[in-house]
Amino acid sequence: MPDGPLLKITAVDAFYGDFQALFGVSLSVGTGQVAAVIGANGAGKSTLLKCIAGLMHPSRGEILFENAATTNTPAFEALKRGIALVPEGRRLFPSLTVEENLLIGGQSRRPGPWTLARVYELFPILAERRNLPAPALSGGQQQMAAIGRALMSNPRLLLCDEISLGLAPIVVRDIYARLPQITAEGLSLVIVEQDIVQALRAASHVYCLQEGRVALQGAARDLSREKISAAYFGV
Amino acid sequence: MQWLNVILQGVLIGGLYAMFATGLSLIFGVMRLVNIAHGDLIVLAAYISLIATQAFGMDPLTSLLLVVPVMALIGYALQRGLLNYTLGEDLLPPLLVTFGLSIIIQNGLLELFTADSRKLQAGAIEIQTFQLAQDLWIGALPLIQFVVAVAVIAGLQLLFYRTALGRALRATSDDQAVAQLTGLDTRHIFALAMALSLAVIAIAGVFLAVRANFDPAIGPARLIFAFEAVIIGGLGSMWGTLAGGIILGVSQAIGAQIDPGWQLLAGHIVFLAILAVRPQGLFPKVSG
User: Is the domain B2-115+144-277 a CATH 1.10.10 member?
Assistant: First the structure.
């Protein structure tokens, strides 16, 4: 992949029926980069991730992944090409054990560094609880399992939707502390967060969505709190 | 001894009902599709076996080697080519489409094979019996049928809980959208589930056709038996479905013993009684 970013989104519009959720959103993520997408509820963050992962298809615009269009690729194909999504609310398979949830993620058989053993090394608590049904885990452990499940497909791009949602701050810090171990393998990350402090700390590049449009973007260190809150709330 | 005999025969026929039922509950469990054509597909399998026995001179039980893969292929194609397009938030479209399918199959069979009753001839094995005790006899064929039913259910249980395909089926049943996100092509998974369901139906259809007369119109009644066995056993539990089939079979046998006209009625009454007292069935799956 000599030219261009890993993921390049150009002027994407997306609809739920008649309701337009995204208006001309553009974004790009380089190899090994961490980008954060922030914004208030209903700003279109999750919609953007769904479009990238192939769960939704934009009605206009283009999504390029490794310089090939994935605009209309279904989700299971997108995963095979290296895009994995950790969905909002974790959504583990409740009738499967923790280990079975991870194995489902690995069923695509993409080659790469992530194996059951590596995921257990990253999140040792999951190894202890491997044979429990997924709903028996605490919220934080479920989040770890959901991340592990996505990693098992050895993605090149990992999309994380609201990792911190409903979790205690100490658990959120614990999970975020392990992100560098994940990106160390050259994997790129797009995180959607409501927790702006956490997002700014983890990401090199930040996009702020407001009512379906990119209201602000830039390197995380260049963005002041004032600029962000102006873009966040539209005041 | 006479009653023991009645109960034993009821248990053995229960295995057949359990096979009708597992296919139905498998499809509902994986994709929330209520297959109204289920009974007619059982009859279709019986006719395919009839063709195989007449054209190739096969024994009905040997014809399973042909009927099972043919029905599985039909199931895969039916799901990929038609039923996948009916699935969605609304449960009604698949219900209507399979209802239409039921009418098409019945009339197609009527056109091809007329309304005459048929029966598959399995030869000497049909009348072989073993004596268990004084006045207690067991037929070879019902016994084989029951053992096959238990083996089919045990096999499905293994497949669901010990293989990658089973894992994928359970994951798809839990959450279709996330199943896609983890790389599962749900259209393919659904088609495999339907193939599996029709493979089980194929076995059930052949045993049905060896046991008793069949004609193109008997499908809907088999669908009712399948429904009743599923509901009695509890949705989502395979061994529960076997228990449901046995309870239905024993009820019918006892009813028939009291008065031949009560055979079906007794089954329906027991079904209604269990539905009234325990609407979740006797062995419901513990949901997560």
Answer: no
Q: Count of domains in chain A?
A: 1
pLDDT value at position B287?
46
Task: Give A91's contacts in chain B (Cβ within 8 Å).
Answer: 175, 178
CA dihedral B177, B178, B180, B183 (to 10 degrees): 180
Please answer whether residues A65 and A110 qualify as being in contact, where contact means their C-beta atoms are separated by less than 8 angstroms.
no
Residue B111 banded pLDDT, cuts 50, 70, 90:
very high
- Per-residue tokens: B183: 């790389």
CB atoms within 10 A of CB B80: 16
- Put simply, the answer to whether A79 touches B182 (Cβ < 8 Å) is yes
Long-range contacts of A119-123 (CB under 8 A, 24+ apart): A119/A148, A119/A151, A119/A152, A122/A148, A122/A151, A122/A178, A122/A181, A122/A182, A123/A147, A123/A148, A123/A178
- Indicate if the pLDDT at residue A134 is higher than 60: yes
pLDDT band at A219; cut points 50, 70, 90: confident
Q: Note which residues in 169-228 of chain B have CB less than 8 A from chain A.
A: 170-171, 173-175, 177-186
Q: Judge whether A114 lies within some domain.
A: no
Kindly report the average pLDDT of chain A as a whole number: 90
Q: Is B89 on the interface with A (CB under 8 A)?
A: no
Reference A36, options A49, A24, A47, A23; nearest CA is A49
Whether A138 maps to a domain, the answer reads no
- The conformation of residue B69, written as its DSSP 8-state character, comes to H
**β-bridge mates for residue B39, sequence order:** none
